[in-house]
């Protein structure tokens, strides 16, 4: 009996080791690891990644402390987004993740904002608490949009906007 229990524990431990830990590069539910665009500003900024869902900057809202986004969902699928985001700066023709100004651990409020069909949803993004005031330059902001799949699963899709501070 003890031998069987030890074998079960070893099997469970092996399964846990091979399943890995989730970290910042966690695989998406679709099984793919998203790769952010790393070259010059996106040619088709605000383009639909999923037909019928867009995310774009609200004109005149960009500042060194934040900006406002406009989302639009014209699909029949449920969609939402959260508070989390990633900021990157264009440095020598490559986007590099910005370092955070917070010491220690940090997190975003775990909330889902709905994207009702046919309605515009405005969302303010303030990053000064996490990245400080942005210096002059070209930046890329990434937000994930969550789509409900027909099989009741979810799909996380990275959407990007590119903006400039200064000049």
UniProtKB/TrEMBL annotation:
The keyword Thylakoid does not apply. Pfam families: Big_14 (PF20251). Residues 52-148 form the Bacterial Ig-like domain. Residues 1-27 form the signal peptide. Coiled coil: none annotated. Keywords: Signal. This is Bacterial Ig-like domain-containing protein.
